[in-house]
Amino acid sequence: MQLLGAGLPNKDLSDPYDITLTQLALLPRSCDFGCYLFDGRFSIVDGAMTWTHNYSHGFFSQVHLPLRWIRISDVSFCDVSSTDSCCVNQANPIWQTFINNLCPLLKHYNRTIAGYDKKGVGDLVLIAGWGFNYEETEELDFIDLSLRMGVLVPTSARTKPERVFDIPLGYNGQWGIPMSVSFAVGAYDWLTIGTFLGVLPFAHITRTLSMKTDACQNGFIKLATGRARINPGTIWQASAYLKADHIIKGFSALFGYTFVNKNCDQITPCNNHLNLDPCSRTNAVFSTCVVGTDPQFQRWNMHTFHFMMEYDFTKPHHLVGPRVGVFFQRQLGGKRVFATNLFGGNIGLDVSCVF
Fold first, then answer.
1. Which candidate among 228, 238, 254, 326 keeps its CA 20 to 30 Å from the CA of 312?
2. What is the pLDDT of residue 284?
3. Are 254 and 271 in contact (CB under 8 A)?
4. Integer angstrom CA distances of residue 279 from 121, 156, 184
């Protein structure tokens, strides 16, 4: 936080906030000084509407639209700077002035760290696919193969630069091409072992966002805003699962594991030369090298364990079959991701139509 104001344009040295940021940046540097710890609660309620249509020869189409409710609440912060008297520490009067005026200073630069609720649709996904099912085997019950390819349409609300902890409901205005292949085999009339491989590359996009103005800035808070061309990193996913299907009457259980990795984003600022609005307080000349050091644009990954139980109430020769289930997903590890476990349930109704 010590260099939060470094590189900002059009500072007014008669303005108390600009004076504080300038004086703070001029203090001796120490790795244990100028550090803030933010805390809070993150929650998400996630659902989806999916429509699938089957054609002949294994071809099918699918429309998928997520529905999400995201909440950031109970945001708090505390000073974790060094108290060592041998170097500049948290008792420094300039630092105390800064932390005592953090919220009005952020408001002065059109920023807020307040919590919020955000509800709406995610990104629409249109899929075309082909499935193959082979059951003429002696040792196995079946072999399934499914190929999918489609387009991800950015129908979700984008983040706002002024909201420091804003989280998008989708992929933040980015178009994508989801592709996947899934494979499964069945045995013993109850066991299914399957895998899933997916990749989601994105198209380039130009968007307004908050960017670093100094390589030593760190964290979510950035006071400068500018346009940048974004080359988003590709998302890769690999999953494997084991399902025990109807092992006790209608009871089924599933165990699975997923690894997801997103490559780093490449950010190229548009305003990287001196052609600034003289009335703007947050437009800056950005360095591509400096912006590229921001951890928010770097690679992330996540390991997840899945568990699901379901009971199928369908009876033989019945045209309508209800089913209920619960699931739990525990995050085993990851980097630059929220450490948030997911749980939920499903209620389904299978209807058989005879023509």
1. 238
2. 60
3. no
4. 36, 32, 61
Q: Which amino acid is at 237?
A: Q
Nearest to 324 by CA among 352, 350, 351, 346: 346
Beta strands in the chain (DSSP E): 36-54, 59-79, 116-121, 124-134, 142-153, 179-187, 191-200, 205-211, 224-231, 235-248, 251-262, 266-269, 300-312, 320-335, 342-351
Is the CB of residue 339 less than 8 Å from the CB of residue 303? no
Residue 176 bridge partners (DSSP): 152, 202
Q: How far is CA 68 from each of CA 48, 71, 120, 157, 163, rounded to the nearest angstrom?
A: 8, 10, 6, 11, 18
CA gap 332, 206 in Å, rounded: 34
pLDDT tens, 300-345? 999 999 999 999 988 877 788 899 999 999 999 999 988 888 888 8
| AA identity, residue 282 | T
Residue with tokens 């054609």: 55
For the chain, what's the residue count? 355
Cα–Cα dist 152/57, whole Å: 25
Q: Would you state the pLDDT for residue 216?
A: 86
pLDDT score, position 315: 81
Q: How far apart are CA 66 and CA 156, in angstroms?
A: 9
Residues paired with residue 60 on neighbouring β-strands, in sequence order: 54, 129
Other CB atoms within a 10 A radius of the CB of residue 286 amount to: 24
How far apart (Å, rounded) are the C-alpha atoms in residues 159 and 121? Answer: 14
Tens-digit pLDDT profile for residues 219-273:
899 998 889 999 999 999 999 999 998 888 889 999 999 999 999 999 999 876 5
Query: Which residues partner with 331 through β-bridges?
Result: 304
pLDDT at residue number 273: 52
Residue ranges with strand state E in 174-221:
179-187, 191-200, 205-211
pLDDT over 90 at 32, yes or no: no
Could you tell me the pTM of the whole model? 0.83
